[in-house]
Amino acid sequence: MIIQQIYTGCLAQGAYYIESKGEVAIIDPLREVQDYINRAEKNGATIKYIFETHFHADFVSGHVTLAEKTGAKIVYGPSAKTNFDAVIAQDNQVFELGEITITVLHTPGHTMESSCFLLKDENGKEHALFSGDTLFLGDVGRPDLAQKGDITERDLAGFLFDSLRTKVMTLPNDVIVYPAHGAGSACGKNLSKETVGTIGNQKETNYALRADMTKEEFINEVTEGLLPPPAYFPLNVKLNKEGYKDIDDVIKTSAKPLSVKEFELVANTTDAIVLDVRHQTEFVKGFIPQSIFIGVDGGFAPWVGALIKDIKQPILLVSPIGKEEEVITRLSRVGFDNVLGYLEGSFSSWQNAGKEIDALVSIAAADLENKIKENAIVFDVRKPGEYTSEHVKIAESTPLDFLNDHIAEFPKKDNFYVHCAGGYRSVIAASILKSRGYHNVIDVAGGYAAIRNTNIERTEAVCPSTLKK
Questions:
Q1: pLDDT in tens, 109-141
Q2: Quick check: 328 and 315 in contact, CB under 8 A?
Q3: Non-local CB neighbours of 262 within 8 Å, separated by 6+ positions
Q4: Is the Cα torsion angle 211, 216, 219, 220 positive or negative in sign?
Q5: Are the CB atoms for 410 and 436 separated by under 8 Å?
Q6: pLDDT tens digits, residue range 72-81?
Q7: By the 8 A CB rule, do 141 and 114 touch?
C-alpha cells in the first residue's frame, strides 16, 4: 500500500495518491492532473477512483479532467449533485482498491455533501481518515459556506458537531488523519501548520473535539470570529459542480507573449487589469501605471481570489521571465482563466521602450518613527487577529482581505502610511490604492517585523469588537 500526500503550499491544500495492487485512488486533486497520471504510470498502476470530499470553494479541483483522461470514476458523498457523471455514494458505502478498502463516511457540516474517507488496510484494520474540510489539525471546517434556504451557519455547525461525534471521534486513536488543508487556508479559523496527525492527538489538542463540550458550546465556538469568505469561493464551487476547461487548453490560450506595442493596445482597448507578479521590492522601484501588484512568491492565488472580484476578469500579466506558465497555472487553480497574455521581456522591455512608469514611495520603519511624531496617519493591513495581538498604537486596522470595502476611508490629500507583517501585503494594498488615485500612499518597508525594532509605541490585546471587519 502506498499513501502519498501531495501538498501545495500556496493553497495550503493536500491532495492524496493511494495505491494498492496496481489500483489507484486520488483524493481532492488539483486542477493540473498530469502529476497523478505520471505517478500511476511510473508504478504500472491504473487510476480507478477520484474521491472528492466535498465541492471545494477555495480551488478548482482536477476531478473532471482526471476522469476524462483516465476513465476513473468520480465519487462524491450523499446529496451531491453534479453536471457530469459521478458516483453519488451512500453513507458507509465501501469501495475496493486492490487489497484495501475505502469507506465513505457522510459528515455534513462544512457542507451538506461533505464526506470523510476511511481507509482500511489489507487486514481490514482502520488505518487512515481522509478528513477533507470536516476535520483539520487543530480546527474544523467553517460552517458558513453552504447556507441555503432555511439552513443557517448555526444549523451547519450543529450538523458538524454530530458528524464529528458519531463518525470521527469513534474511530481508534491511532487512525492517521490526512486533512484537506493546513495553516493559511480560509476554510478554517486557526489551522495547524502540521499536515498529518492522528485521531487521538486531535482529541487531546483540538478545541472542537473536547469530550465535555456541549453542542451549544461547539456551535458558539465554531461560529465565533468567522470572517466573510473570499469573493471567489462561490464561483469555484460552481465550477467544481458544473465543470471547467482543461487547464492545458487554458495555458495554450493564455501563455501568449505580447510585445510592448501589443500589450499597450490590449490594455487600452479592453477592461483588462494589469497584474504585476514580480517581487515586491522590484515593483516598488517601478511599474506600469495602474498596475496591481500581487507577487507570485507569496500567497498568490488566494490573494487574487480575495481582491479581484470576478474570475472572468481579463488579466494582462507582468511576470518574471520564465515564470509565465507557472503564474497562469496558479491563477487557474482558483478559476481565473481569462489571461489575455503577458508582457514579453517583462517590465524591463517596457522601460527600454521609453514608456511611462510609476513607482511607490517606501520608507524604512525608522523613518516612520519620525513621521509619527509629526502626527502621521497609519493603516495596518494585516488580519484582525494579527492586529489584535499587537499593533502600532495609532494605526487603524484595515485588513487587506477587505480593502475594497474601505477605500473611501483613506485620506485623499494628506500622506498616509500602510504596513503589514513583512512587506508583501502592504505593497499589494498600496498598489490597489494608487490605482484608485491615492498617490499619497506610502509603504513601510519590512512591515511590523521592522517596526518592532523601533521605539514606535505599540499596543497589545485590543478587544476584537473595536476592529473593523
A1: 999 999 999 999 999 999 999 999 999 999 999
A2: no
A3: 341
A4: negative
A5: no
A6: 999 999 999 9
A7: yes
The C-alpha atoms of residue 37 and residue 41 are separated, in whole angstroms, by: 6
DSSP SS3 for 445: coil
Is the pLDDT at 422 greater than 70, yes or no? yes
Of the listed ranges 110-114, 181-185, 314-318, 419-423, the one predicted with least confidence? 181-185
Q: Which residues have CB under 8 Å from 248's CB, separation 6+? A: none
Q: Closest Cα to residue 59, out of 80, 32, 84?
A: 32
Residue (of 414, 330, 332) closest to 378 by Cα position: 414
List, in order of start, the domains of the chain with CATH numbers. 2-234 (3.60.15.10), 246-352 (3.40.250.10), 362-466 (3.40.250.10)
Residue that is written with C-alpha cell 476513465 in the block: 71
- Ranking 158-172, 181-195, 202-216, 379-393 by mean pLDDT, the lowest is 181-195
E-strand ranges in 216-360 read: 257-258, 273-276, 292-293, 315-318, 339-343
For residues 197 and 184, give the distance between their C-alpha atoms in angstroms, rounded to a whole number: 17
Residues 115/54, Cβ–Cβ less than 8 Å: yes
Pairwise CA distance, residues 182 & 186, whole Å:
10
- 228: cell is 466573510
Neighbouring CB atoms inside 10 A of 265's CB total: 12
The helix or strand, by DSSP H or E, that contains position 105, with its residue range, turns out to be: strand 100-106
Spatial distance between the Cα atoms of 37 and 46, rounded to a whole number of angstroms: 9
Q: Which residue has the cell 499619497?
A: 440
In angstroms, the CA 434 to CA 358 distance is 10
Residue that the C-alpha cell 490526512 belongs to: 178
